[in-house]
Amino acid sequence: MKTSKFIFFLFLVCIYDLTSLYGQSSSGRNLDFRLGNFTNWTGYTWRFSNEVPSINTNPVSGFVSRRHTIMSDTTEYDANTGYALKKIPSGYLYSARLGDEITSADRAPRCWEQSL
């Protein structure tokens, strides 16, 4: 009789564990950017240089266009990897790019391309 009670107890513990594991939806957290935006994320920007410490700034909270970007093209490959890696992993709809993607139309250096 003790064995059957123990097995029943184990069964209840397993059921409780599974319901708590799957009973909570992560969609509200937006950890995988499933909302297509930065909801529940905090972005920061600042400048830092070991060579030119005078340009260093403190972090500023907020998202900056082009520096913090949600990508949504699930078929696009990353040129920086020789087109070997997708910009968005299979099974996901979005990913975030941190930093700017420089194009041929960009002529002026930005703070992370500091010219002296």
List its salient traits.
single chain, 116 residues, alpha+beta, two-stranded antiparallel ribbon, 1 helix, 18% helix, extended
Secondary-structure class:
alpha+beta
Morphology: extended
Task: Kindly state the number of beta strands.
Answer: 4
Spatial strand sequence of the major β-sheet = 1-2
Main pleated sheet: 2 strands, antiparallel
Strand content: 5-15%
Question: Any low-confidence stretches, pLDDT <50, length ≥5?
Answer: 18-24, 111-116
Could you estimate the helical fraction of the residues in percent?
A: 10-25%
Rg from alpha-carbon coordinates:
23 Å
List the helices and strands in order: HEEEE
For the record, give the distance between the C-alpha atoms at the N and C termini, rounded to a whole number. Answer: 82 Å
Q: What is the average of the pLDDT values?
A: 76
* Number of separate helices: 1
Explained architecture:
This protein is an alpha+beta fold and about 120 residues long. The protein contains one helix and four strands. The longest helix is centred in the N-terminal third of the chain and has 21 residues. It is extended and about 70 Å long. The termini are far apart. The C terminus is likely disordered.
Q: Helices and strands in order, then pairings?
A:
Elements: H1 2-22, E1 44-45, E2 60-61, E3 68-71, E4 95-98
